[in-house]
Known about the structure:
The chain is an alpha+beta fold. The chain has helices at residues 84-99, 124-145, 176-181, 210-235, and strands at 15-19, 27-33, 36-45, 59-66, 110-119, 158-166, 169-172, 184-191, 196-203. The strands form two sheets. It has a five-stranded mixed beta sheet. The chain has a four-stranded antiparallel beta sheet with strand order 7-6-8-9, with helices on both faces. α1 crosses α2 (124-145) and α2 packs parallel to α4 (210-235). The longest helix is centred in the last third of the chain and has 26 residues, at 210-235.
Amino acid sequence: xxxxxxxxxxxxxxxxxxxxxxxxxxxxxxxxxxxxxxxxxxxxxxxxxxxxxxxxxxxxxxxxxxxxxxxxxxxxxxxxxxxxxxxxxxxxxxxxxxxxxxxxxxxxxxxxxxxxxxxxxxxxxxxxxxxxxxxxxxxxxxxxxxxxxxxxxxxxxxxxxxxxxxxxxxxxxxxxxxxxxxxxxxxxxxxxxxxxxxxxxxxxxxxxxxxxxxxxxxxxxxxxxxxxxxxxxxxxxx
Length: 238
């Protein structure tokens, strides 16, 4: 299959991660995955949710929003509360980020990672996870350097990518055009060691079989390996 973008089936979009874009946040970055751009900021508070008090553990959570003209047509601003879609995405981001952190090593400290979509061309949730982890790492690194934490509680890096079946061909990192017409669409969140954090997958019309899932999984491992390498490069981590 020839992709409209000219990419190979196992080729992700160009990725750029720019750190320090918000001087007021403890950690921040702008992640660009092709034409999908997300700004991620990590904010630290010396408190935890009431149900965690006294447990000597910390907390990591996330919020997600899309600017009204991030898409090809304007989407109304979510003034009152996040839409069902936004709530589902921010819960996914929170679960993904917590998977890479030892919460017992950040007692009574909460980090909120805000992911705000500036441009959307598919894969906003996966870009938010990948960029959100960079911002989280920077915030935890800053607290460690300041002595607020005895050590950086990051256990291993986490990133995410989408894969799908387009025209009966398995492809990596779907843009909007591919995503909107795919026979199957999956989001993979994996850790640096290759362990599964979360997989979301849906067939559109025609179910896919186990061999196709295995091929999608292989593509996801390739893409996430490249994304974690990009995370580490921008953070100066070996």
